[in-house]
Amino acid sequence: MTKDLPVVSVIMSVHNDKKTVDEAIESILSQTYGQFEFLIMDDGSSDGSFEIIRAYSLTDSRIRIFCHERGIGLTKSLNELLVHSVGKYVARIDADDISHRSRLEVQVRYMESHSHVALCGAQGWYMNEAGMEVGVKNVPLDTAVIQKKLLWNNQFIHSSWLFRRDIIIENGGYNPLFLKSQDYELILRIAQKYTVVNLADRLVWWRVRSNSISWQNRQQEWYALKARWYAVTAYGYSFWYGMYCIVIRFLWMCIPVYIKRKRYAR
Question: Where do runs of H (alpha helix) occur along the chain?
Fold first, then answer.
C-alpha cells in the first residue's frame, strides 16, 4: 500500500434508512483509526437517505457516494462497492448498525499481526429500534468451534466483518444468486479454504427491528437453507451433518418471527 491509499475500505449499502443512517455514518467517521475510505451506496432510497449521506460527504472527503435510482439489492450493491474499493482490508457495516469507535483500530492491528487470517469478526451488543442496548451478542472465538457450528447457523455478525479484499475478490465476492443471507453463503465458502476468526472485543451494536436486514421473513431463511445446501454439495462440508442441519433449520423456519426475536433480543 502506498501512503496515498487508505488501508481500509468501509462499505455500506443504504435503502430507505433515514432514521438510522446518520448514527451508522458518525460511528465510522469518529473512528480512532483514520486511514480509511467510506464507500456508501444509496440503493434507490426514496425517504431522504441520500440527502443525509450527501451532507456528510460535503464535510468529510473520505466518503465516496454511489447511487442507483432503482434499487439493485444488497448483494449487487456490496459487490459494486467491493470493485470500487482500494483498501487492503474491507470493513462492513449496515445502515442501521453502529461501530464502536475503536473497531477499525482493533481489527486492523489484529489482521496486521495475523497474516494467515482472511476475515475477522467481533462480539457485539443488541439494540432495539430506539437505539437502546438490550443485550449482548456473543460469537465463538475458537476457530475449531466456528468450523463445527457454522453449518448450524452463522457464527459471525456481518456488520463486524473486516476481511482481506484480495481474498474475497479472488473468490468471487458475494454470490449474486443470494438476495438474502449473502453473508452466510460467503462465510461458508471462505471458511472452508481460509482461517476466519472472531475477536473477543465487543465492537458493534446490532439493531434488532422488524424491517432490519437481519429479521427479514422466511425468504431470508430460505436463502440460508440454500447456503447450507451449497456448503454440503459444493464446498466440501459434511453431507450428512449438513442435511441434519438443513432439516432442523427448516423446522426452525416455521416458528413465527416474533417468537425468534424474543429468543435473541434479551
Answer: 21-29, 49-57, 74-84, 103-113, 143-149, 165-170, 182-191, 218-233, 239-253, 257-264
- How far apart CA 251 and CA 228 sit, in angstroms, is 15
Grid cell digits, residue 207: 439493531
| CA–CA distance, 131 with 97 (Å, rounded to integer) | 9
144 class by beta-carbon count within 10 Å (0-12 exposed, 13-18 middle, 19+ buried)? exposed
pTM for this entry: 0.91
* Pairing status of strand 162-164 against strand 117-127: antiparallel
Q: d(Cα 220, Cα 127) in Å, to the nearest integer? A: 21
- Dihedral through CA 243, CA 244, CA 247, CA 252, nearest 10? -130
Instruction: Tell me the one-letter amino acid at 45.
Output: S
Counting Cβ atoms within 10 Å, is residue 260 exposed (0-12), middle (13-18) or buried (19+)? middle
Could you tell me if 226 and 87 are in contact, meaning their C-beta atoms sit under 8 angstroms apart?
Answer: no
Mapped onto helix, strand or coil, the DSSP state of residue 20 is coil
pLDDT in tens, the chain (266 residues): 445 789 999 999 999 999 999 999 999 999 999 999 999 999 999 999 999 999 999 999 999 999 999 999 999 999 999 999 999 999 999 999 999 999 999 999 999 999 999 999 999 999 988 888 899 999 999 999 999 999 999 999 999 999 999 999 999 999 999 999 999 999 999 999 999 999 999 999 999 865 444 445 678 889 999 999 999 999 999 999 999 999 998 988 787 766 665 655 44
